[in-house]
Amino acid sequence: MPKLAEIAPSSKSLSPEALPPRVAALIYDGLCTFEYGIVAEVFGLSRPELGGSLFTFSSVQTEGKQNVAAGGLIVQATGTAQDLERADIIVVPGWRGKDEPVPEKLCALIQDCYARGALLFSICSGIYVLAAAGVLNGRSATTHWRYIDDFAQKYPDVTLRPNELYVDKDNIITSAGSSAGIDASVHIVRNYYGAEIANSVARRLVMHGHRHGGQAQFIEQPVAKPGGSHRLSDMMDQVRSTLAETHRVATMAKLAGMSPRTFQRQFQNHVGLPAMQWLAHERVTRACQLLETTTQSIEGISQTVGFESPDRLRYHFRNVLAVSPADYRKSFHRSV
């Protein structure tokens, strides 16, 4: 494993003499504790196994002298205005609410930091701060899948990439849900120090150096709405238990005791997806379980879950999860 002194920075903005890069995390009232913890863990800890600290880290208050953080904590940061002025990376670790206004002072701070060339990095709802400051206009970005519709309505000038874990564009990095902030943080380490150092940081975090796929892997699978038709719910249970069999709209309609037209209309209202799309999701979900817990071949899994060939499994897997079955297994397989 190389030591820091042996590594030339890969970032074009820093010379070797400028290392370690300076990171400033913005502290605000209602601080998202987990998101802040990610930043402190990746950028704030010493790395004795690598010969020193990768970054110079500070936390800077943006409003008041003390702030309340999620979980009932009182936070008083030790960073200074000079730390902000000198920081190479400015991190917005979440925001206190999607409907909470961003103070003009904070917007001006973000604008000034970006104008002088600092890298801006938001985690999860922190994207609302960058957007309020206007630095995302005309650019691509991402955020937690639960905020996508709301954010798109409030900031139509930002091009959202909803399935990405993080987006790195024009010296701004935005990440999706909280844990995607870890992926984006390791990405920053990789940009400055290369893959080997980034992989070492990832191992200390007990995670992969690079996670395949996007947010679709973690969005809740569609389920029947409570109080819906018992006939449809019973049919869905039957299909789930017989995924290896051939199922079509006509056969599922028959199981539900409906005409195909009535079935398709009621199923869409009941579940929120067309029946065949729901079936593909169910088969992919079952394939995920087998990839995680067995050593069964891709061909065997495709037959077990009802896809007519491994190619069809791969097609639907990528369509639903934006990752191949093989890469999914590499990331999530566990011994049983």
From TrEMBL:
Keywords: DNA-binding, Transcription, Transcription regulation
Keyword Repeat included in the entry's annotation: no
SUPFAM superfamilies associated with the record: Class I glutamine amidotransferase-like (SSF52317), Homeodomain-like (SSF46689)
PROSITE patterns found in the cross-reference section: HTH_ARAC_FAMILY_1 (PS00041), HTH_ARAC_FAMILY_2 (PS01124)
Domain of life: Bacteria
Sections of the chain in a coiled coil: none
Protein's UniProt keywords contain Cell membrane: no
Pfam families with a match to the protein in the record: DJ-1_PfpI, HTH_18
Gene3D superfamilies: 3.40.50.880, Homeodomain-like
HTH araC/xylS-type domain span: 233-331
CDD domains found in the cross-reference section: GATase1_AraC_1
PANTHER family found in the cross-reference section: ARAC-FAMILY TRANSCRIPTIONAL REGULATOR, HTH-TYPE TRANSCRIPTIONAL REGULATOR RV1931C
Name this polypeptide is given: Transcriptional regulator FtrA
